[in-house]
Amino acid sequence: MRVPLNWLADYVDLPAETDPHALAAEFAAVGLEEEDFFGPEITGPLVVGRVLELVKEEHSNGKTVNWCRVDVGPEHNEAQDDPKDPQPGPEVPSRGIICGAHNFVPGDLIVACLPGAVLPGDFKIAARKTYGHKSDGMICSAKELGLGEDHDGIIVLKNLGLSGEPGDDAIALLGLDQVTLDVNVTPDRGYQLSMRGIAREYAQMKGQSFTDIGSPTVAEVNAATDDGFPVVIEDSNPINGVVGCDQFTALQVTGLDPAATTPFWMQRRLIAAGMRPISLTVDVTNYVMLELGQPLHAYDTALLGEEIVVRRAQAGEKLTTLDGVERTLDPEDLLITDRGGKGGKIIGLAGVMGGADVEVGETTTDVVIEAAHFDPISIARTARRHKLSSEASRRFERGVDPLLGPVAARRCADLLVELAGGTLSPATTQVGQAPEPTVIELPVKRVDSLVGVDYTTAEVTGLLEGIGAGIEVIGKDRLAVTVPSWRTDITADVDLIEEVARTGGYDRIPSIQPAARAGQGMTEAQRTRRRISNLLAADGFTEVLSYPFTNDKRDDQLRLEADDVRRKHVRLANPMSEDLPLMRTTLLSTLVDLVVRNQGRGAKDVALFEAGLVSTSAGLPEGPGPRHLPGYHPSDDELEAIYASVPHQPYHYAGIISGNAEMPGVWGKGRKAEATDVIDTVRRIAALNGLEVTVEADQIAPWHPGRAAKFVLADGQTLGHAGELHPKVCENLGLPARTVGFEIDLDALLAQEDLRAWDGALSTYPVSRQDVALIVDAELPTQTLAATLREGAGEELELLETFDLYTGDQLPEGKKSLAFRLTFRAPDRTLKADEASAMREAATKLAAERHGAEVRS
Q1: CA separation for the pair 288, 301 (Å, rounded)
Q2: Counting CB atoms within 10 angstroms of each CB, which of 176, 209, 503, 592 has the fewest?
């Protein structure tokens, strides 16, 4: 918000010698941080001049210039110094200046910049020879002085409503010596986007009394009448149960002078505040918006229908806004339309920008002034949807005072009557009612406990009254605080406490370092994640993060079945990219993109892993979940319904190896990654966390049907899958053939009992090892056979290892040989060879009964 200090001085006692940098520091102390300064940019002599003579000269380049003699005052006029350029007479000293503009005549008062001056942009003025004359200065336009974009002609003081005498200081006359302070307004303090709001902050900061020019009890407002311009609010699509427009004020001004122009003082303030003067009616609406904070709009009555209708857009409707852009509207967009008579058109995008059809023009004599109050969420969504941030939308989406509409409309109408000679019609439209004020109970002791400053009741009362709140003492050290209408950000007692701390001065709050609480260390989930991540990093994997957004096409590339639960995505209402509107259900779906990217940059051997959340809409109720207004506390049943509408988001680990698992070197040729690499990785993850898993062959996308494993936990939950990716999946995604990967569900892992705890004594007796090779069906999983051997061997079996697999010609077709090493140890004695052999034979006997296993000699 740009704050011209001379404008601020209209509402508060601002000393003329105020240091703007010191003022910025004071504002920062109450939350208004300084962004920039816009101060005097012109140095040197800039004076009022009177044109004494003007001679038009045509030159060979086709340009006609004016050779002028200008009286710039006794202090700056020079005696005749060039016989070729005689002065009008010795009794009238002057300066000779060349000027290319033609909008002035002899006798006009203009602004002359004399040699030695420096204009904005470090443009230095000096006497120079041009067009056959010595031009001793420059006659200035508004653009050259930084007063606007008009460069079609020079400044003529009478056209600005200004006067003076030759030699007068034009810098002071034009307000070019004023300073504008630009402050950063936080999104929750929309009231500060006005001179009214900034003035209130200054008055409280300095302990001054403040007369609120925007209060209906201070300013003059029109009472509603039955014959006001008809306005109807039809909101068929309220957002969160809140209608888009709850109040609408309309005043009518007739008989405006179309030729009336914006006075210079108003133009100067608009420019200083960062806005471009356009026309008197538009400038007045902008001026009042900057002054009070209420956006306004003026419609040409002659172009309006018989009534104004506020409604939501229909699908496919279009509107050309004042910036000349045709926009396709969304059913959530709130519109200002008209109907009846010449009506039946969209005349504005409510709270954002008006339409071109009823724009005030050069022939407008009668206007309808709109001062409405719109829902911040509706306006914010419309502005972002159309990428159309305006001064109006910035204020509405931050919250506009609901009581301000009638005041601002009357202020705008009065200025139009004063400056354009119009007549304010007594017919006044008031649709809707302002909300009841919010009352919050505040214990003063709670202020002390939260802020750490010992405030008195009187001090808290004074500080809150300074922000415009009403105070009633309802008990010992207890206040009932009526929140001011413009403070939509204050909804609870902590917001009031924040205001006490802010306006009372942040420098009063002591800086005391609190004693650290005794920590309990990491949670079990955090320790588990650290163990797994360390294991993967030690195995050569690099941790990465991918964006969790995907699309239906990726499901097809992964060859997921039509009924696969992983196709049940959560769809984003406002995705970052229309190409990626879905939340991922599997980490592999986004991790593969990083593998492809790294390989595209020359990394041919890649091992990446990612840990993160996935989301699924499986089990969610149809339609959106329950919604409640801010500040409402749901009941237990409502909370249960809310939680039921939240997608399930388990925490997963996934990894991919592409290329070599063991790098080539002097030690050998290296080895390509295989399914067994990632299967072993998952087994070791389970073992690291004290879990036993059953490994089963599985056929599930996106893995190869014959080279994939499923891991089942003790309680029957699936931990995850690992193996080689399907050749078609690799082809679809641009991955090298034989790429392998894994994905596990960490939440399922954490739900298991940790078996690492040891509740017995370590045996000090030696082990006895026995080897056995068994011939079984080739389809029998090794894991199944090992579990049978472990069961048959008994409690003295300490370790079972698989050390050989043979499938050669010496075996019958469809058979394989698996060799196991069984390690036995007794806790209370040294096992004899016969005892160990008996245990081994018991194990092989059970394997023969269950699986038809034969001992291979």
Answers
A1: 20
A2: 209
Same domain, 264 and 314: yes
Q: Residue 131: which residues within 8 A CB-CB, separation 6 or more?
A: 57, 59, 65, 67, 98
CA distances from 623 to 81, 584, 626, 627, 680 (A): 88, 20, 9, 12, 43
Q: Is pLDDT larger for residue 351 or for residue 37?
A: 351
Q: Is 75 annotated as a binding residue?
A: no
Please give the C-alpha separations between residue 809 and each of 776, 804, 805, 814, 817, in angstroms, as whole numbers: 15, 16, 13, 11, 11
Determine contact, residues 38/272, Cβ cutoff 8 Å.
Answer: yes
C-alpha to C-alpha distances, 822 to 693, 769, 840, 848, nearest whole angstrom: 19, 6, 8, 17
Number of domains the chain contains:
6
Shared-domain flag, residues 403 and 496: no
Confirm whether 212 is domain-assigned: no
- Tell me whether residue 101 is in a domain: yes
- pLDDT band at residue 516, thresholds of 50, 70 and 90? confident
Same domain? For 531 and 452 the reply is: no
Cβ-contact 197, 191 below 8 angstroms: yes
CATH number at residue 67: 2.40.50.140
- Asked whether the predicted pLDDT for residue 511 surpasses 60, the reply is yes
Q: Say whether 85 counts as a known binding-site residue.
A: no
In degrees, rounded to 5, the angle at the alpha carbon of residue 443 between the alpha carbons of residues 439 and 444 is 115
Residue 448 exposed, middle or buried by CB count within 10 Å (0-12, 13-18, 19+): middle
Is 499 labeled as ligand-binding? yes
- How is residue 321 annotated by DSSP? B
Helix (H) or strand (E) run with residue 247 in it: strand 245-254
CATH number assigned to the domain comprising residue 817: 3.30.70.380
User: Both 168 and 183 in a single domain?
Assistant: no
> For 343-363, what is the mean pLDDT?
89
| Residue 645: domain span | 524-627+635-750
Same domain, 296 and 196: no
Amino acid letter for position 495: D
